[in-house]
Amino acid sequence: MTEISDRQALPDLQRRRLLQLMGGLLIASTGLLSYGRLWAASGGNASQTRLLVVFLRGAYDAANVLVPYRSADYYRLRPNIAIPAPDAANPKSAIQLDEQWALHPVLRESLYPLWQKDELAFIPFAGTNDTSRSHFETQDRIEAGLDEHASLTEQGGFLARLNAELGQPASIAFTAQLPVIFTGEVTVPNLALRDAGKAPFDARQSNLLSALYKGQPNEEKVKSGLQMRQEVASMLADEMQAASRGAVSAKGFELEARHMGKLMRDHYKIGFVDVGGWDTHVNEGSSQGLLANLLGNLSRGLVSFKEEMGPAAWQETTVLVISEFGRTFRENGNRGTDHGHGTVYWLMGGKVKGGRILGDQVKIAESTLFQKRDYVVLNEYRSVIGGLLQNLYGLDRQQLGRIFPGASPKNLGAIYGDIS
Which carries the bigger pLDDT value, residue 213 or residue 347? Predict the structure, then answer.
């Protein structure tokens, strides 16, 4: 390889761009190398447990996804947007799950089969004790894993702390920017898959960049990072070309989720992705409309993720779907819903004891609402997620205390092979 003695061999702007991207490459290669060390140290028996956290940014309307069809107040307070009660003769009606709850009909072909296979569960009345109803503050607080009184600038994100406690298994954020949930002392790569089908460097640029680091301490990490990015780009480019040959796609998240499934099956053990657009103040719709379209894309994406994982990896996988808060139980004057409080979390995967509604509950009526407008929070998010992580990874109280300071884990019995 030709040595470069003059750093101006690259135009200044291009050189700066390459060097800026090197941070991500070094982080990515570090994550893969760290998991390799964990695997080697365990004699080839490192845990195959996989966790994907899906954050629905904008606060989705949980009451129109997990429908409280036995509540008369639900229909009285939502005259235009309520989902019709289960009715076998009406395909636009909710899908009955048990004697209290039903599922949005747009999920009939996607998520409902997972419920029937006991691979999907819901946790209503979940959320934080933060009552600001601020998207940004509450999102940051959830990702940080801290209570409503703690400073958000102190301890990074809870997935970063989990990563450290587990000895740095390969982890990734499928996002354009590193999210709060993965900030901290442990470096984690982030990669927006919608842009990953194009290789970040051509062959000439890769050679130049490698030469810049030849003989430097980070030489091997640079090589590993470049190789990883080129391999991912090649793999995704091939799939994108195949999809353009008339294959049906559910757009956006569905395509990205299939790529995520492949990467988490083959490389990564902890992942994070966020999906926006859930702030439905206006014309939310009922069985059809804005929310139904969002749910359709999301649910098809989640099924695509499962399909790409394959049966073996799916059996070791848990998907946690969360949002910053819920929405008002009463519809507003624009046939939408406003910022609320309690919400519903989802659990999916081969490790999930599904087909159940989990956690503490209360009868849904206007009289039981928080501040006469929202779902109450009975299943505090740090306790719920802490109990989930305890069961998935066998963490002790000291480890959980470092991940969620001051929280007590709540065991919902949601995971097969409980190792706590």
Answer: 347
What's the pLDDT at 32?
42
Handedness of CA 322, 328, 330, 336 (dihedral sign): negative
pLDDT at 215: 72
DSSP state of 89: T
The 10s digit of each residue's pLDDT in 99-118 is 999 999 999 999 999 999 99
Identify the bridge partners of residue 66 per DSSP, sorted by sequence position. 103
Name the burial class of residue 369, with classes exposed (0-12), middle (13-18) and buried (19+) by CB atoms within 10 angstroms of its CB: buried
CA atoms within 13 A on the CB side of 362: 16
Strand order of the sheet with strand 102-103? 66-67, 102-103, 95-96
Mean pLDDT of 224-240: 54
Q: Which residue has the tokens 């390969």?
A: 170
Residue 306 lies in a domain: yes
Q: At 146, list the tokens.
A: 């801290």
Supply φ then ψ for residue 415, to 5 degrees. -120, 135
* Res. 276: pLDDT tops 80: yes
Please tell me the distance from the alpha carbon of residue 29 to that of residue 22, in angstroms, as a whole number.
Answer: 10
Total count of domains within the chain: 1
The three-class DSSP label of residue 295 is helix
Please give the C-alpha separations between residue 299 and each of 96, 293, 307, 344, in angstroms, as whole numbers.
18, 10, 12, 15
The pLDDT score that the predictor gives to residue 28 is: 45
Least confident of 143-152, 169-178, 207-216: 207-216
pTM for the whole thing? 0.79
- CATH classification at residue 305: 3.40.720
386 part of a folded domain: yes
Structural domain span for residue 86: 48-200+252-403
Helix (H) or strand (E) holding 7: none
d(CA 345, CA 73) in angstroms, rounded, equals: 22
d(CA 246, CA 183): 40
Nearest to 28 by CA among 152, 177, 171: 171
Give the pLDDT confidence score for residue 132 in this predicted structure.
83
Total H helices, total E strands in the chain: 11, 11
- Rounded-to-integer distance, Cα 25 and Cα 295, Å: 34
Residue 37 host element (H or E): helix 12-41
